[in-house]
C-alpha cells in the first residue's frame, strides 16, 4: 500500500513550485573571503522549496521533517544534515522546467567552455514521516538500518533510500545461448544545459518588433518578463531569454530533488569523461554580492544574491508541477 498527497484531476497540473538554492549558497561555494573558498563543480547546488524550521541552518538546506519544531531539536534516527527535497505523489507525471543560464559577457572565460548539468533525485519516505508531518510515504514502517559513525560515535539512522533518475540503453539482441543473460545498461542521468551566449545560440534571438526603436539598434518583441533585466551589463541585450527546457518524467519516489553541477563542456578534448570545473561566484563577504565578472554571476543573479546591479529573484528557479497529464 502506498500513501500519497491528493493528486490533481487527470486534466490538471498541480500549483507549480519554484525550486531555488538556499539563501547565501554563493558564500559556501565561491567567496573571495575572508576566508577565501573555492569549491569544485562536482559538488552540486541543491534546489528546493522547503521551509526549514531548524534555526541553525538556512531554509531550504536541510530536511525540515528531520527536525522537531515543538521540541526545537532533531528527530531521533534522522541525520540533522538530511538534505531538503520536495514531496510529490509517487507515480505521478512530473513536469520540470530547467533553465538555460546565459553566459556572462563580463567574464574573461571563453564562451561555451563549461556547462551546467542537472540531476533529478528521488527519495522514499516511511509511515513515521506520514504520521508526524503528513508526508507522502511508500515504506510501510519506520525501521532502523545502518548506523552513522562519521561523527566518531555510532548514531542510529532510520532507513530513507534515495535514487537518481536513470537511462537504460537497449542494444540489438546479441547472439548468445539460452542460458545466458541479456544485459541492459543503466546509467544515472544528467541533463546538460550549455551556458548560452550570442555566438553559439542563434535560437535565442527574438523576432523584430514592428516599428520598433531605441534603446536597441533593432527592437524586438518580448517573450517573457520578470526573469532577468533586458539591458546589459549582464548579457547581450537581444539574447536575454534564459529559455526553459521542459521535461516530463514519472515520480519515482515520494520526494523530488534537483541538483546542479558544473562541468567543462564536452568536446574532443574531454568527450569520454565529465571534467568538473570550479564554481565561480567570487562572493564578497563585505558587500554580500557576487562579482560582476564572475563566470557564474548570472547564475547568482537568477537564483541567489545577485550582482552589483540587482538582487536575486525569489520567483525565478526550477519550476515543478505534477498531475496525470503528459507522458
Number of helices: 3
Largest sheet: 6 strands, antiparallel
* Low-confidence blocks of residues: 1-10
Overall pLDDT confidence:
78
Estimate the helix proportion, in percent. Answer: under 10%
Q: What series of H and E elements makes up the topology? A: EHEEEEEEEEHEEEEEEEHE
How many discrete domains?
1
- Please report the distance between the alpha carbons of the first and last residues: 24 Å
Q: Beta fraction of the residues?
A: 15-25%
Shape: globular
List the SSEs and their pairings.
Elements: E1 17-19, H1 25-29, E2 30-33, E3 37-38, E4 45-47, E5 67-68, E6 73-74, E7 86-87, E8 93-99, E9 114-123, H2 127-133, E10 162-164, E11 166-169, E12 185-188, E13 190-194, E14 244-250, E15 255-264, E16 283-284, H3 297-303, E17 318-323
Parallel strand pairs: 2-16
Antiparallel strand pairs: 1-17, 2-3, 4-15, 5-6, 7-15, 8-14, 8-17, 9-10, 9-13, 9-15, 11-12
Features:
mainly beta; four-stranded antiparallel beta sheet; six-stranded antiparallel beta sheet; 327 residues; single chain; 3 helices
In short:
The chain is mostly beta strands. The protein is 6% helix and 23% strand.
Task: Characterise this structure.
The protein has 327 residues and is mainly beta. The chain has one domain. It has three helices and 17 strands. Strands 4, 7, 9, 10, 13 and 15 form a six-stranded antiparallel β-sheet that branches. It has a four-stranded antiparallel β-sheet with strand order 1-17-8-14, with no helix packed on it. A hairpin with a 4-residue loop joins β5 and β6. It is globular. The N terminus is likely disordered.
Amino acid at each position: 500500500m502506498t500513501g500519497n498527497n491528493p493528486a490533481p484531476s487527470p486534466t490538471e497540473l498541480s500549483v507549480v513550485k519554484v525550486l531555488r538554492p538556499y539563501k547565501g549558497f554563493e558564500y559556501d561555494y565561491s567567496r573571495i573571503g575572508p576566508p577565501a573558498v573555492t569549491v569544485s563543480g562536482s559538488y552540486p547546488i541543491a534546489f528546493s522549496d522547503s521551509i526549514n524550521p531548524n534555526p541553525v541552518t538556512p531554509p531550504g538546506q536541510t530536511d525540515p521533517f528531520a527536525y522537531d519544531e515543538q521540541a526545537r531539536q532533531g528527530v531521533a534516527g534522522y541525520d540533522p544534515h538530511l538534505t531538503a527535497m520536495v514531496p510529490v505523489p509517487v507515480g505521478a507525471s512530473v513536469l520540470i522546467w530547467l533553465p538555460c543560464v546565459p553566459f556572462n559577457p563580463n567574464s574573461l572565460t571563453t564562451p561555451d567552455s563549461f556547462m551546467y548539468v542537472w540531476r533529478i533525485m528521488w527519495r522514499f519516505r516511511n509511515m513515521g514521516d506520514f504520521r508526524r508531518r503528513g508526508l507522502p510515504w511508500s515504506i510501510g514502517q519506520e525501521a532502523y538500518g545502518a548506523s552513522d559513525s562519521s561523527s566518531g560515535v555510532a548514531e542510529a539512522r532510520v532507513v530513507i533510500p534515495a535514487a537518481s533518475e536513470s537511462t537504460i540503453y537497449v542494444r540489438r539482441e546479441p547472439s548468445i545461448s539460452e542460458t545466458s543473460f541479456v544485459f541492459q545498461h543503466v546509467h544515472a542521468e544528467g541533463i546538460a544545459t550549455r551556458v548560452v551566449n550570442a555566438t553559439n545560440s542563434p535560437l535565442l534571438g527574438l523576432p523584430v518588433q514592428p516599428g520598433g526603436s531605441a534603446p536597441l539598434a533593432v527592437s524586438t518583441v518580448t517573450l517573457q518578463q520578470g526573469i532577468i533585466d533586458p539591458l546589459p551589463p549582464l548579457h547581450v541585450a537581444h539574447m536575454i531569454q534564459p529559455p526553459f527546457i521542459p521535461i516530463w518524467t514519472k515520480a519515482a519516489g515520494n520526494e523530488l530533488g534537483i541538483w546542479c553541477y558544473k562541468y567543462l563542456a564536452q568536446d574532443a578534448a574531454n568527450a569520454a569523461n565529465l571534467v568538473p570545473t570550479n564554481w565561480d561566484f567570487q562572493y564578497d563577504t563585505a558587500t554580500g554580492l557576487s562579482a560582476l565578472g564572475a563566470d557564474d554571476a548570472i547564475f547568482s543573479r537568477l537564483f541567489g544574491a545577485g550582482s552589483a546591479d540587482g538582487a536575486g529573484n525569489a520567483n525565478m528557479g526550477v519550476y515543478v508541477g505534477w498531475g496525470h497529464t503528459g507522458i
